[in-house]
Fold these 4 entries.
Entry 1:
Amino acid sequence: MKATTASMLVAILIVCSNTLSSCKKSDQIIPAEHAFAQFVEITDVVPDAILEIRYYSTYNFVGARVDGYLQPTAILTHQAADSLKAASDDLNAQGYRIKIYDAYRPQMAVSHFVRWAKDLDDTAMKPYFYPNVDKSQLFQLGYIAEKSGHSRGSTVDLTLVNMSTGKEVDMGGVFDWFGTESHPDCGGNPETMEYRPNDTITAEQFNNRMVLRTAMMRHGFKPLDCEWWHFTLNNEPYPNTYFTFPVKTK
């Protein structure tokens, strides 16, 4: 029995709710093969979703393919994918398709971000993603952390594509931009959806953010206060679990 338990601990994902080195009784330990079975590819549930998996490419703030992204696909828990389907149908009716930048993110990818952030000499992508932020401040400002809700499997990063033009909707900022410009309340009040004239984003850009936000919230997702593109399922099935298996097709 002890040997079996030990071998499982090597091959499985370990989940913690605080630091990477400690776990609580509420945390879970799940065999990797069983965990993967609880997920689904987004395009199997939302066939018209467009995938632009940035961490599989080199166009991201790291400037390289991120650890754990074995294929350019996006996966979520079944529950999150079903809710995303409902949101997508809502947006389709308004003339939009969804474009996915990231969904489930393995812990090994988050660890890659941490290593990159500690290498202060690597600033190759600074002009594209954090021109106004000193890299040494990324941890302090909360842009990089040792854990991510994405690793729990029910968080998705996305934007909208206009079905008439085939072009991305102008959100007034790019995915993974490190700065206050990415905050949903930049230029207005997300609660009332009232635009506040400013020099950062236009009324149209603010409204576009609210279209995405409203649809996602209507179908069971909660937004993040510092990223207009980031949404997590309210009743996520693994609230204390940080998975480690890689991103790949079923």
Note: The domain at 40-233 is CATH 3.30.1380.10 (Muramoyl-pentapeptide Carboxypeptidase; domain 2).
Entry 2:
Amino acid sequence: MTSESPSALLAGVYVANVTPFTDDDHYSIDTRAYAAHVRWLADHGVTGIVPFGTNGEGPSIAAREKRPVFEVLAAGAGDLQIIATVAESNLPDTLDQLAFLNDLGVRAVMVMPPYYFKPVETEGLKIFYERVLAATRHPVVLYHIPKYAIPIPTELVTSIPVWGVKDSGGEAGYAETLHSAGKGVLVGTEDDLPRRLLTADGAISALANIVPEQVVTLYSHIRAGRTEEAAKLSAHLLQVRAMTKEYASPGVLKRVAEQRHGHPMGTVRPPLVPVSPSFDAEAATALALSGPAS
């Protein structure tokens, strides 16, 4: 683990970027659309991207499919930081993916615990992550998303030399405990960002796929202590988030992103289904862009 402080290594707005798939029987990753979307995000001021997480449909994508995308991203990232998600659900595939990523210039790796067996003992998770740490040269972010995977106890995070967590659980006191122990925290949801970012180094945002400049502005307001401006923008983003959650699919983010930058974003991969043809992408985009002026 690096000797840098958490905020020196990872801080700012990261995008839980979506994965465009071809709209045919193969559902292949559309690498051209993927790269175009990432370039657009970079042009709108985000710190980095987090490929193949939950909104990136990572658990639906084979490790071999991810590798060419990781190579392209690492080669052309420039100043854009990449936190590579490893969510392979078992130890051997996790270690194989980490070995592949060792040769790439990613900023960190975000490793989800195996997500089938519940409950598991903290000791079992510790053994898993000790093997992870031994296998990677990159700083490790633990992916705490108890809705879908094994919860990561705070005592585990503080007992091993990881950077910290992506907190997608939001339990009271969770981030505060880790922050006070010197671990890094990236907020994994847009709920109450003005408060939650006070004990976090940054955010991994799904909404930043469609309103990157607004999420970046909100982060800047919070860091500068502009509480009134932050509250207004946060209230707007909660409305946008509520709209996206109505459809329970990353497809809505793809449709709105497509409206914004004009690059076709394809479809989702089964078992997810596309948003209804009746979804009004123009109206959704107008809502997303209707927030307070920065």
Note: The longest helix spans residues 227-245.
Entry 3:
Amino acid sequence: MSLEKVDLNLLVYLDALLRENNVSRAADYVGISQPAMSNNLKRLRKLFHDPLLVRTAEGMAPTERAEEIRPIIRDLLLTVEKQIQSKRSFDAGTRRRVFRIMASDYTESTLIPRALRRIRAEGPNITLDIMTPSDVSFQDVERGKVDLVINRFDDLPQSFHQKTLWHDGFSCLMSEDNPIQDDFSLENYLISNHVWVSKTGMGVGVGIHPENIQKLGWVDEALSKLGRQRNITIFTRHYQAALLHTQDSDLIVTVPSKMAKLHARNSRCVLKKPPFIIPPLELKMAWSPLLHENLAHRWIRKIFTEVADSFE
């Protein structure tokens, strides 16, 4: 079959199908109906003389032929997209687009609500799909299945683009009835009971033990350098839950200050500066090189960057 007889839009649909490995999600990504995408998959199978995606026990999976052509199609579309978009801009006011964003609840509670107000004002038909760190792998990001990951990372693949959004210090929250609030010394901090919150990265997490200092994160590493250790009573993966645990008990939670300040207006809580030095954390935004030149992607990255810059 000669090239002039091929509908080149099919390559866009193929790219989405191989990115999502799911007909419905691929249809959402490019803004067409599921039946239309199913029909396009039939046309693609006929064009390539290969099923391309086959159903397995774990969902749709690409064939060997699909894996071969995936990077070729992606590079081709990126080249064309870069040339076309260099003279254009993204019209957020009229476009429909789903952005998949991996964020911890720290990010979802602090940055995203303010960014969402901007997004809704500029792009009323834009949808955010917020995913947790355990929902996402680096491979998902690399392939462009996830638009952005916003979190604190020890390591990121070198191929990823990344930007530091802010640095945040730490604060302690406790109940107004906590007897040590008027004498918040290091010694009283250490004899108290504490809530630990996960230093979440990417992928499915595993259990943790109080004695494993190397995996406990910033607060406990800072204490370890002083030769001290706190008494951790509760381990949780959710900042909001950790903050709630402190309201009616003797527990103390030490969390990033931007998160702590969200609860500082609660009359039952007392906000305190930690009685020792904790190095600040770095919140980063990272994305695949496949999406770097995409106009819609550049638009939403700009919003997150500007909102982060204005955050107090």
Note: The chain has a mean pLDDT of 86.
Entry 4:
Amino acid sequence: MDIRPPALRFPEPVRADLDAHRPGLADETERMMATHVRPCVAITAQRVSATPLRRNPLARLFGARGAQPVLGVTQSKFGGTPYCETEEDWSAHGFLGQIDLAEATSVLPPGAPRLTGLLRLDRGRDFPAILRVRWFPEPSAARAMAVTTTRCGKWETKLEFKRGWTIPEGNALESIWTHRTPWHEYDEFFPPGYNADGFDEFHRMLGHPSSGLDEHYGFTPHEGYSHDIAAYECLLRLTYDNAAGFSWGTNWVYLLVDREDLARGDLSRVVVTGANY
């Protein structure tokens, strides 16, 4: 399996503009940008049954029943049965999904973060504090407790993980993009194979932070942690999911982790914030 990133080549209008400014600038800029490449995990959902978990009122009136969860309690998924080790208060939350981090990060190349444990996401009523995040360092089906709770998505879905590639975007990109034409003025800017979640609508784990974080809101760090969002890496960016059946309008939800915590593989103090794209 080829673990190298794809060839980094800007769209032809960008290259032509660069070379018009100075011959050879396009190649020079591509070499510079290649030093900023980071891998990411592209997360997509696939339904596991032809019947939703939750029926609408009219369907229930005519006797239609929802599907029963089929995925294991420790599997990566949206919907279905959540993993839980102790009694928890579910009165203000419903189960959104969970990610087997070892499975997810196994698609990354050598040198990229390797994470372990199970990351569980429960959806609340408010935005952006819409998620309650639980990290279980050593999940075990034998320790799992039965849970009665609502499910936020309409469908149970298994999660699939593929490797993706990112370059900086937003303010981080502007700091290294020195050409006279701002990068955001091009109709197409990102090289093919990079930052593809902006077009293919998948959830992104790790990689460069999305530009939405430049205008985030609701960021409240844990006690003793930095109030500068630049001190954090983006662990996960969640958009809507048609397969699972959940959305939050034009908003995206971001899970941030302190850079030093991420290096240790400690996800016990994840911070949730939001942005309007």
Note: The radius of gyration is 20 Å.
